[in-house]
Structures are given as structure tokens and as C-alpha cells.
């Protein structure tokens, strides 16, 4: 499970602020990935009649400024993730071949951006679809449009902030089954001062997520764009440590017993073993009434099911009363008694 530090529009057009934030994430955070929102052709992204058009447009970074931020990230041990908001941003992102390129849910079915992703990105990066607030048909159509099987669905949405009762984990689990060929992530947007912020994030992450995303700030609680769900770097590091615990808890998923389970499943001291009720002789046909199942200080190499499989077989040696049955008491290739 990998942790994504989301920067979004938190910089408010202040390049020095963004540089310091990213530098802090590179040098002092335990995040795996740093995510940046790249918008280059703003008029393709937003119409002038939108109420925040003027404000957001004044916050744009130039391609050169983004190049400096990207070089900072790529020169660190952090991975780069770029969210692209227009076709120019897609072409720009392609130069850096980031491991992850995201299409936000607000433009999930924009054919111009999807076509650009197909043309410039899909053979280089995993495509992330933000699917918060999207219908199943919208998700399905976007997936079918792309010529790639490297897909990640990112659940979660920002409504400043998200109330955790609106996360709808039951729906997320159903979507994961429906699109089970994809990888999955959860982008948490609970309030920065929500007492259950970390708990909600970890609980959602425990539902089979490959990635967990959090908004991050160096000015915790200060009223800036996206501050409503932005945690501090210290909080991000604490979350990273707990995600490691969660990964250990998750385990390998193999259906066979692991070493801890094997140690717990010893027949005799822990699980009941088959122990003889009387002396048995070589050549006797083994019957269920010859034994009891009990916990004992002796160790048997036969499970309870193994013992039942041996019923009706001849013993190949004498066994004293109050002894556990062992594999060596039976001829493995011998069939039932005649």
C-alpha cells in the first residue's frame, strides 16, 4: 500500500509556498508519492463565466515552474504523480513519464483529454481515474475508452470537507467487485480537525486499497484552498507508520496456514489428537472406537481429518494404550482392511 501526498491548489499561485511544501515532503515526510495538479491551458479547463475563473487563472504556474517542482520530486526518493486538467497538461506530463497520471472525476468522460491520454500516456504510466461522484456508466465508459490495462480507480471526493457518513464504503466495495481488473485507491477528504480523521482513513484503506491519498500542508489549520482536509506532515508520517501496521495485518492472502497458524495448530498440545483407548496390535483393522480425541502432551503428525481417513486400514505395528496415533502406524499406500 502506497501513501500519496496531495498538494492540489493549496499553493494559491505562490510558487515559493509550493516549493517549500514539496521540499518538506521530499526531505521530511514518509509519503511514497507526491501529487501535483497541472493546468496549462486554463481556458480549456474553465469558462470565464465560472465564479472562480479569475482567481484560479491567477494561480497558474508556468510550464517552467512545474518543471522545477517536478525535478525536485524526481531528484528525491519520492515518486511523481500528475493530475492533468487539459490536453496541454497531458502532453507536458508525458515528457516526465510519471508512474501515475490522474484524470479527475470532473472530466472523466472528456473525449479530448481521454484521446490525448491514449496518444501520449497510456504506454508510460498507470492511469488513475478519480471516480468520486461518478455513475457506474461513466466509469465503465472511461475504462473502455483507454487502450491500457494499467488502471487505478481512486475513490473519495472533496466537498469541503467530506463527511465520513457520505463515503459509502458499501458502495465502494461493490464497485471494487464490479471493476476487479483494476487497482484501487482511497483519497480521504475528511476535515483536518475531525477526531476520527486517521481512523476513517485507515478503515477505508483496509478494504483492499493499493493507494491512500491525503491532502497535506505545512500550515496546518490555516485557511487556504483545500485546507479543510489537509493534514500536517507530522500527521502524515504517523499515518504512514500505521499503514505499515495495516499491511502486516493484511498478510499475504494465501489460503494455506502461515507459520504462526501452524504453531497454533499442533495436534496434541493445542488441537485434540487421536489417542488410543487400549492396546492395539499389528494387523488390527483400525476403527473409530479404538480412540478418543483429546488434548495431550504428546504431539501427533495426524490431523483429525487424517485420522478419519485411516479408519478401516490395517495397523503395521503395535500401539500401546494412551498413545497418540501417528502416520508411521499405517502403511500409506495400503487400502482398506479386507
Describe this structure in words.
This protein has helices at residues 15-28, 42-45, 53-58, 63-74, 87-94, 111-120, 136-145, 169-178, 197-205, 233-250, 259-264, 304-309; strands at residues 2-6, 33-38, 79-84, 100-103, 126-130, 151-155, 183-188, 211-217, 230-232, 273-276, 291-294. By secondary structure, the protein is of the alpha/beta class. It has 2 domains: 2-250, TIM Barrel, CATH 3.20.20.70; 259-329, Type Iii Antifreeze Protein Isoform Hplc 12 (Alpha-Beta Complex). An 8-stranded parallel beta barrel has the order 1-2-3-4-5-6-7-8, surrounded by 6 helices. A two-stranded antiparallel sheet has the order 10-11. Strand 6, helix 8 (169-178) and strand 7 form a beta-alpha-beta unit. The protein is elongated. The two termini are 58 Å apart.
Query: Any idea of the CATH class of the largest domain?
Result: Alpha Beta
pLDDT under 50 segments (min length 5)?
Answer: none
CATH superfamily of the largest domain: Aldolase class I
What's the number of domains?
Answer: 2
Largest sheet: 8 strands, parallel, barrel
Tell me the CATH architecture of the largest domain: Alpha-Beta Barrel
Q: How big is the Rg?
A: 30 Å
**Based on CA inertia axes, which overall geometry fits?**
elongated
CATH overall fold name of the largest domain = TIM Barrel
The counted number of beta strands is: 11
Structural class: alpha/beta
Q: Mean pLDDT across all residues, rounded?
A: 93
Q: Enumerate the strands of the largest sheet in spatial order, edge to edge or round the barrel.
A: 1-2-3-4-5-6-7-8
Instruction: Summarize the helix and strand pattern as letters.
Output: EHEHHHEHEHEHEHEHEEHHEEH
What's the end-to-end separation, in Å? 58 Å
- Treating each run of at least 4 consecutive H or I residues as one helix, how many helices? 12
The portion of residues forming beta strands comes to 15-25%
Fraction in helix: 25-40%
Amino acid at each position: 500500500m502506497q501513501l500519496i501526498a496531495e498538494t492540489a491548489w493549496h499553493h494559491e499561485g505562490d510558487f515559493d509556498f509550493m516549493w517549500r511544501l514539496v521540499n518538506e515532503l521530499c526531505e521530511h515526510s514518509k509519503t511514497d508519492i507526491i501529487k501535483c495538479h497541472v493546468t496549462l491551458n486554463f481556458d480549456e479547463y474553465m469558462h470565464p463565466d465560472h465564479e472562480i475563473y479569475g482567481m484560479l487563472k491567477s494561480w497558474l504556474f508556468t510550464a517552467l515552474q512545474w518543471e522545477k517542482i517536478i525535478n525536485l520530486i524526481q531528484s528525491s526518493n519520492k515518486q511523481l504523480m500528475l493530475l492533468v486538467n487539459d490536453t496541454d497538461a497531458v502532453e507536458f506530463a508525458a515528457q516526465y513519464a510519471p508512474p501515475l497520471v490522474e484524470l479527475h472525476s470532473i472530466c472523466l468522460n472528456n473525449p479530448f483529454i481521454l484521446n490525448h491520454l491514449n496518444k501520449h500516456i497510456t504506454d508510460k504510466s498507470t492511469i488513475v481515474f478519480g471516480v468520486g461522484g461518478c455513475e457506474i456508466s461513466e466509469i465503465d465508459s472511461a475504462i473502455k475508452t483507454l487502450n491500457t490495462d494499467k488502471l487505478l480507480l481512486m475513490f473519495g471526493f472533496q466537498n469541503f470537507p467530506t463527511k465520513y457518513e457520505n463515503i459509502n464504503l458499501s458502495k465502494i466495495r461493490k464497485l471494487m467487485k464490479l471493476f476487479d481488473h483494476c487497482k484501487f485507491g482511497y483519497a480521504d477528504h475528511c476535515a483536518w480537525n475531525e477526531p476520527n480523521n486517521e481512523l476513517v482513513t485507515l478503515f477505508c484503506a483496509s478494504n483492499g486499497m493499493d493507494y491512500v491519498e491525503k491532502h497535506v500542508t505545512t500550515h496546518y489549520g490555516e485557511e487556504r484552498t483545500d485546507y479543510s482536509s489537509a493534514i500536517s506532515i507530522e500527521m502524515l508520517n504517523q499515518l504512514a507508520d500505521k499503514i505499515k501496521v495495516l499491511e502486516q495485518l493484511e498478510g499475504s492472502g494465501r489460503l494455506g496456514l502461515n507459520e504462526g497458524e501452524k504453531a497454533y495448530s499442533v495436534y496434541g498440545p493445542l488441537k485434540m489428537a487421536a489417542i488410543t483407548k487400549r492396546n492395539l496390535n499389528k494387523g488390527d483393522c483400525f476403527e473409530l472406537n479404538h480412540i478418543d480425541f483429546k488434548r495431550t502432551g504428546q504431539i501427533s503428525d495426524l490431523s483429525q481429518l487424517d485420522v478419519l481417513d485411516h479408519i478401516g486400514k490395517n495397523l503395521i505395528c503395535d500401539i500401546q494404550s494412551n498413545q497418540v496415533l501417528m502416520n508411521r502406524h499405517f502403511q500409506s499406500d495400503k487400502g482398506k482392511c479386507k
